[in-house]
């Protein structure tokens, strides 16, 4: 996406695609949905047309427990562009979900100093507008 | 199939100035570098029949390689743009060598120019780089371009005990190198304390752990070994190349402390028939200090987890195991976007030609070039050497 095509002062919002629409629908309902392969047992984040491991289309969508641990993290002091400047410092976290997959998001309602490796976190969502709720994490 | 010894670098060039270069367009910076490379090779521009380029951050081009060809007034019969982010610089070498070996072109010019420092505000330059993150799964969360590099470094510190002082040593070493390099963007010495006390960017990284943002243009000319011998400078041969693209998203990187450099370097070394201890000089992608720690391990200079002590022992400078980024790197020479590490490559070529004056690594014959980017999603390695290494 070119830098001139979008408003740099507005936070970028996702444009769901046919693969990911169910995932974003889930976020809107406060659910973290993972795809479980009925053939090989692979559990995947994010949604794909088929299993990333074995290409089976026999996928079951299940709601995750929402529990996870911080696998790594970085507290942002220099924002990536004007839209996030007012939020610093904030913690970006790579969370290992109880079901296995990792996902990346940022913490809300959390002092960045309270984040460390293996910190227990839980999934939550933050409503942005009627279409989009963003997945977030907070301390367990 | 192998590209070993089947292509050679005949010319290299930089824009008239690199660093802060206001009032010169990306294409003009690129064109200056092209003319310098053409002059270096001692050829006429009409001898170029292939042009390769990559993504420009500060201006929108769908076909940079064609735009720059027109700007130079040439009509190549082979043209392509490679966009694998920071990995482009080595990947372009591998792919140019393959194209020459396949007969698609005989004299290939690679070039890119960018104005990330004066052509964009600092906020917009950071935003442009972070836009390479996924629009659905990364960008909405305010994840900077530094993030994947910061989180991999943080994990490496957590698992292996890599220290602040070891990271700072990378920055201080490359700054010392830049002080010896005419035209480097950074001209003042720094200390460990300066690095450790510089402003926080994204933990564990501080400002002096991070690549510069710069303006500039780069170019090189590659041709067949036979043709290179008839040109002005001593040919520097492509001996091996390897690439590895392990994931697009950091949340699918299996082990945050291990990059695709393990595979890309093994492929390149095997093709070249060399081992890490054979190298005389290296250009290693240094977008962040901690990235260099991961790289020296994955490139096989030390065991996994020992990169910090290896660097602290002075192994990346003169007299050490592998003098690296003798021009100062992205941290202290310049960082011009996707072509940033082509500056490293040009430095390694000049070292192998013996053109580096005060900063020359004595007797350098075999060089390593390693580039990466896209949050460790793109990794490419190229091995080059003098005629003695063929």
Describe it:
With about 140 residues, chain A is mainly beta. Chain A has a single domain, classed as Beta Barrel (OB fold (Dihydrolipoamide Acetyltransferase, E2P)), CATH 2.40.50.840. Chain A has one helix at about 20-30, and strands at about 35, 45, 60-65, 65-75, 90-95, 100-105, 120-125, 135-140. In chain A, strands 6-5-4-7-8 form a 5-stranded antiparallel sheet. Chain A has a 3-stranded antiparallel sheet with strand order 2-1-3. In chain A, β1 and β2 form a beta hairpin. The radius of gyration of chain A is 16 Å and the shape is globular. The model of chain A has no long low-confidence stretch (mean pLDDT about 95). Chain B has about 400 residues and is an alpha/beta fold. In chain B, β2, α2 (about 65-70) and β3 (about 80) form a beta-alpha-beta unit. The interface between A and B is large, with 44 and 42 residues.
**Unreliably modeled segments of chain B:** none
As a percent range, the share of helical residues of chain A equals under 10%
- The oligomeric state of the chains shown is heterodimer
Number-wise, the strands of chain B total 11
Index terms:
heterodimer; A: 140 residues; mainly beta; OB fold (Dihydrolipoamide Acetyltransferase, E2P); 5-stranded antiparallel β-sheet; 3-stranded antiparallel β-sheet; 8 strands; 36% strand; B: 390 residues; alpha/beta; Peroxisomal Thiolase, Chain A, domain 1; 9-stranded mixed β-sheet; 11 strands
Please specify the SSE layout and strand pairing:
The complex is a heterodimer of chains A (140) and B (390).
Chain A: H1 21-28, E1 33-37, E2 43-44, E3 59-63, E4 67-76, E5 90-97, E6 102-106, E7 120-127, E8 133-139
Chain B: E1 8-14, H1 26-41, E2 50-53, H2 64-72, E3 78-81, H3 88-101, E4 107-115, H4 122-130, H5 147-160, H6 164-179, H7 192-197, E5 200-202, E6 205-206, E7 215-223, H8 225-229, E8 236-244, H9 261-272, E9 281-284, H10 289-298, H11 307-312, H12 329-332, H13 342-353, E10 366-373, E11 378-385
Helix pairs in contact in B: 1-2, 5-10, 6-10
């Amino acid at each position: 996406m070119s830098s001139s095509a979008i408003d740099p002062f507005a936070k970028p919002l996702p444009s769901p695609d046919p693969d990911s629409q169910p995932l974003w629908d889930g976020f809107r309902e406060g659910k973290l949905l993972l795809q479980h392969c009925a053939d090989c047992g692979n559990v995947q984040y994010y949604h794909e047309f088929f299993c990333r491991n074995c290409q089976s289309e026999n996928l079951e969508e299940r709601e995750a427990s929402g529990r996870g641990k911080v696998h790594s993290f970085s507290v942002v002091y220099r924002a990536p562009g004007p839209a996030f400047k007012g939020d610093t410092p904030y913690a970006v976290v790579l969370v290992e979900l109880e079901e296995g997959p990792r996902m990346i998001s940022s913490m809300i309602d959390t002092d960045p100093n309270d984040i460390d490796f293996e910190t227990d976190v839980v999934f939550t969502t933050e409503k942005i507008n009627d279409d989009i709720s963003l997945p977030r994490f907070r301390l367990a | 199939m192998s590209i070993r010894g089947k292509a050679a670098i005949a010319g290299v060039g930089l824009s008239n100035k690199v660093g802060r270069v206001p009032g010169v367009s990306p294409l003009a910076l690129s064109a200056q570098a092209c003319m310098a490379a053409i002059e270096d090779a001692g050829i006429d521009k009409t001898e170029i029949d292939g042009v390769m380029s990559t993504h420009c951050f500060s201006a929108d081009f769908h076909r940079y390689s064609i735009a720059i060809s027109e700007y130079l007034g040439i009509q190549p019969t082979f043209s392509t743009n490679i966009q694998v982010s920071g990995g482009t610089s080595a990947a372009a070498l591998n792919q140019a060598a393959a194209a020459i070996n396949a007969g698609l072109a005989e004299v290939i010019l690679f070039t890119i120019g960018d104005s990330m420092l004066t052509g964009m505000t600092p906020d917009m330059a950071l935003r442009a780089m972070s836009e390479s993150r996924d629009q659905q799964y990364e960008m909405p969360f305010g994840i900077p371009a530094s993030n994947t590099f910061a989180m991999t470094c943080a994990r490496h510190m957590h698992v292996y005990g890599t220290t602040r002082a070891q990271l700072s040593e990378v920055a201080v070493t490359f700054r010392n190198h830049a002080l010896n390099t005419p035209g480097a963007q950074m001209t003042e010495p720094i200390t460990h304390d300066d690095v450790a006390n510089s402003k926080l960017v994204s933990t564990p990284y501080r400002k002096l752990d991070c690549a510069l943002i710069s303006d500039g243009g780069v170019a090189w000319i590659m041709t067949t070994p036979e043709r290179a011998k008839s040109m002005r400078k001593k040919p520097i041969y492509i001996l091996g190349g390897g690439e590895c693209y392990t994931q697009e998203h950091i949340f699918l990187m299996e082990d945050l402390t291990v990059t695709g450099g393990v595979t890309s370097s093994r492929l390149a070394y095997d093709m070249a028939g060399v081992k890490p201890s054979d190298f005389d000089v290296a250009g290693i992608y240094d977008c962040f200090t901690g990235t260099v720690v991961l790289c020296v391990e994955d490139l096989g200079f030390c065991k996994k987890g020992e990169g910090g002590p290896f660097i602290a022992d002075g192994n990346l400078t003169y007299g050490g195991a592998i003098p690296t980024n003798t021009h100062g790197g992205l941290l202290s020479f310049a960082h011009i976007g996707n072509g940033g590490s082509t500056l490293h490559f040009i430095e390694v070529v000049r070292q192998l030609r013996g053109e580096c004056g005060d900063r020359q690594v004595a007797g350098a014959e075999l060089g390593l070039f390693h580039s990466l980017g896209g949050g460790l999603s793109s990794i490419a390695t190229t091995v080059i050497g003098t005629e003695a290494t063929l």
